[in-house]
Write the structure tokens for this entry.
Amino acid sequence: MASAGLNRIHIGLESGSDKVLKMVKKGTDKATQIAAGQKVKRAGIELSEYFMPGLGGKALSRENALESADALKQIKPDFIRLRTLAMPAAAPLTEQFKEGSFDKMGEVDTVRELLLFLEELADIGSNVKSDHVLNLFPEVNGVLPDDKESMLQPLREFLQLAPAEQMIFCIGRRTNGIARFSDLAKPVQRGYALEMCSELGVTVENFDDVIDSLMQQFI
């Protein structure tokens, strides 16, 4: 395929955890994903691998982060692209969530998982891209290992915020009034986010439920 002119392949890794892959019926396992990615790289074809924070739910969050990072360190793709979990109304995972058998994470826990994932990627030379509307932090964008700390910084600062501040940022981002984490300190953008919190009746206790509804317009 490379000699015929194929020069780029995009692969939905989604997760490097065998437990997560089995749960979502991906139809493959970690070892197969690693072998496939390495084969693409050996052929000289540019490779983008996609990781899905949140796919394991609360129960498998840590495993999703660590096993996915481990798989990608072995593959060494040209690009690692982030696609935060969102659940369409008709998806089987959504039904499991409604039944209580899938413990979907909220925004804060998903950020914790993403931070752990990025910390574990270590010194591979991949480009990390948060290039999708579903992602909370578009500024998580750079080349490893040189840009690692600049990508981690907004995640760490977000996790240090009080819950009410986390809520304001997340609602602002999900309603398109805040474009990046640094906007939280800007009066106009912050004011918009506060107005949306009031308009939508958002509280610290319910903001993940509100965001679940907002996310449906993006999927």
The mean pLDDT is 95. The first helix runs from residue 18 to 23. The chain is about 45% helix and 10% strand.
